[in-house]
Amino acid sequence: MRAVARHPYSRSTVSTSSQPPRSDAFVFFGATGDLAFKEIFPALAGLIRDGLEIPIVGVARSGDLDSLRERARASLAAAGFKDASATSALADRLRYVKGSDEDVETFHALRREIGQAAHPLHYLAIPPALFGPVVTNLQVSGCADGARIVVEKPFGHDLDSARALNRLIHGVFAEQDVFRIDHYLGKEPVQNLLYFRFANSFLEPIWDRNHISSVQINMPEAFGVADRGAFYDSAGAVRDVIQNHLLQVVSLLAMEPPSGHTADAVRNEQFKVVDSIRPLKPEDIVRGQYRGYRQVKGVAPDSTVETYAALRLAVDTWRWDGVPFYIRTGKSLPVTVTEVLVEMKQPPQAVFAENEPPDANYFRFRLTPDCSLSLVARAKKAGEEMIGETVELMALHRDGTGDPPYQRLLGDALRGDQALFAREDWVEAAWRAMAGVLDLPDQPFVYEPGTWGPAEAAKVLRPGDHWHQPSG
């Protein structure tokens, strides 16, 4: 892709054919919540350091401007943000509206607070149950005029609720003004998948069913649900990370080359992949639950929610016919890491008479905690015999060299660039693919914390395939 000029506070990877107006005010609902503390304040400070100069308005039910400024400073200190000038500028630029999300007078006060801003960006860092009243009151008060809206995941709980949410939002905002934020798409390693796919000509001839045997995505987490028991017991592993984060990874790995440089050029191809996923059936998934999960506060004592899921996807396209996509994720597993492994087919004949059949070549993409790319191949051992060994050629990208995901994504939303945001049709296609394995009534298999989950996970594998165990 050609290089494009970018605004100082944007990190978009794809240009747009016509530049939309930049947002001239930033409003965030839920200003005293955890998301604002952990992500939004540090992102705003980073954007201010990079040149952002617009009013910033927090909306919440309690507190005042002084307490909001103090919370912002505490947030930046906790995040290790060191720029004193940007910290001071964020505190000075903050404004505050106290009131209820369901009270239209709060929104009239907000309209007065943002003053002459013609294109405000409204961030809904609040529970989805409050989206309806907020969207309605934004319209009634005139705050939605010329505005954009950022919506946090989850984007619905299933296909029907996702469609209802989209209808609600589209009653006020056009799709081009809706930014469904998934921080995973803002991660540098995830974007590297897209870049690696289409910046290297040697991949295209081998990136298909004729040369690739399987694709495996592993996202183990070494920790449990901690204090998120009530939330997690309403979601589970499939809703929490597979339907969104990991299907985004699948769509980047399996998409066709984008035809153009617009935001929708990439998103069109991502949608085609997810829309081509064969709807899952119960036999395509093995669900697990770590021992002790039901004793976590907020979890039902007879919960059937999965803390582990291993599944097999089929992407019904010409390129990927017959290639299984395996996904595995879970809580209380041995390590915390996210890794993609693309395994190539074996050579058609064994030229060398080795005692053990050699492993196949594969590409390994490490997405967290570091960013690396490996090619695993065979090389001859020193000596007279024609016997080989597995060698790994690795390129390691040091973490921390790019902007944090929320800073990257908020900068793009303020600029009106939707390239890294989930589109309505993608979200609905993802729910459609997962519909058959949501809320299964069967009890998940119990596994011990610190293990790789239930042994039954092997059932979803094709004969001859095996789960790769990522290292920490």
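The record above closes out task 2.4. Task 2.5 opens with a second protein, given below.
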Amino acid sequence: MLDLNRIIPTHDIYTDIYIRYYTTMRSSTTRALILTFGIVITAIIGLQLYWLYRTYTFEQQNFHTSVVKSIRGIYEDIDMVYDPGNKMSQLVQTPNADTYLFRTDNVPNPDSLMYYFTYEFDDFNVYTDCITGIHEKGKSNYSYQGYLPAVGSSQTKMNNVKLPLFENDFSYVTLFFPHRQSFVLSRMNNWIITTAIVMMLLTGLSFSLYYFFRQKFLNEVQTDFINNVTHEFSTPLAVIELSTDGLERSAEQRDPSRTSKYIEMIRHQAQYLKKHIEGLMKTVVAEHHTASLEKTPVVINSLVRRAVNELAPLTSEKHGSMILQLEENDTKVDAEPDHLYLAIFNIINNALKYAVNPRIVITTYSRKNDYHIRVRDNGFGIDRKEFNNIFRKFYRVQNGNLHQAKGLGLGLYFTKKVVTLHQGVIKIQSTPGEGTTFTVVLPIA
């Protein structure tokens, strides 16, 4: 006769190894692709911004060079200095990026100065507004101030602009370009437009990749869930099928002890399937009716005792113990009893599943306006890095390549959702190898 207790666990282990290996490989590939695309997009954006900056710096320098060449042309057109051999660096000053001062020993005629500036700026492509001023040594104001509009400008004067004075021991001519920055940027229109288009394309690509990988992740979750359901349901179905065959043989042999054994196996596996199906249905209901909880005053201690009684066979099977430390007043909390019961049941059930010889301490107590339900076990424990994952849908904590217990990964997800719907919180403390403590905190009406 086949030993079901030896056949079925072997199937579980190898199926779990395959699913875990397959999922890990897919997750690693997905993470590698996301990282690669992220690096490529970041590199393209960085390169584009770098060249935009280089172009901006070049245009700034080009503008400066054009202005200095225009000033040199003025020196060639008008006799302004006694020593024409002086270098331009000795004759020209730049107090700031928008202002140029150049020395004059012979104060020029304003009309001649403006005339020659018009032609010099045109020769060296300085097509932006310019305010000029002539300051004579020893005077407190400019003796002349004029305006040279940009090519094509309809403006004939620049109002409300006062040229600042600069302390020097010589006479000088001031050139002030109020729109220098705009002019430099206008020279970069093609680069700016190209960069904007590239940024828009990369942004669109990033969103497309995000939705692609999100959809891929959802598809993987769906696939994992289907594999998990197939795995979880195939085992009890195989047991039921083999038990049915054994039941038929024992009936023919009129062996009551074997008949009773197979009936018990069928009943146990049927209850296992029923529990998972009910869990799925309740999760679906919770997903679509989050705002329809009908709360009534509930004694939490009663829900705890009910869960402990229902789990008594599993406790006995695992040679475990339940220690109840319940508050004496049987405080009532406004809650939806069925959902809250299942949430408490899931926590205690997990404590049983994830321990070899479980010793579970369940404590309830009131503190100020909150009601606390604490479940402490001596199980495998959970690594801190898993704390944010254990409440995710379909997620199960793994140890190496194996899941440590059966399940669909819905228990804690459903529990967290129910607690949140009751305006409560669920806390976790755990040390790998020592055990885990879950604490549910609910508001007292």
